[in-house]
Fold this protein.
Amino acid sequence: MVVPTEIRQRAIALLEQLPGESLMRAVEFLEALSQESLRVSVASLTEADEAALLKIIQRRLSPEEQERLAYLRQQNETGKITETEHQELLMYVERVEQQDAERAAALIQLAQLRQVDLQVLINELLPTHSSVA
């Protein structure tokens, strides 16, 4: 296999041998290859970025955690919550609020990345109502 620096040196040597008109065509060809390579790398970066943002947007508490949070909320509403349970409830509330903030930021970034209206994206990706985070 030829080392990349050797390939570059060979390409430069060939370019130096080309007459003016052929040199212009060679430069246009190289520019087209460069643009194509740039588009491919941007597209793959965009797909990776989108996947990471979607993961944040779709992140939720596990079913077990949702069940526990619902129980703690019910205990709080009925006034039967212990101090330990109350602290646990506050921990869940803080966690859900943090996830909501991260979700909102990810939605904004994804809307910009896709170049769509934020409300369209919200309607597409988020449930219309959610009783538990």
Observations:
- The chain has a mean pLDDT of 86.
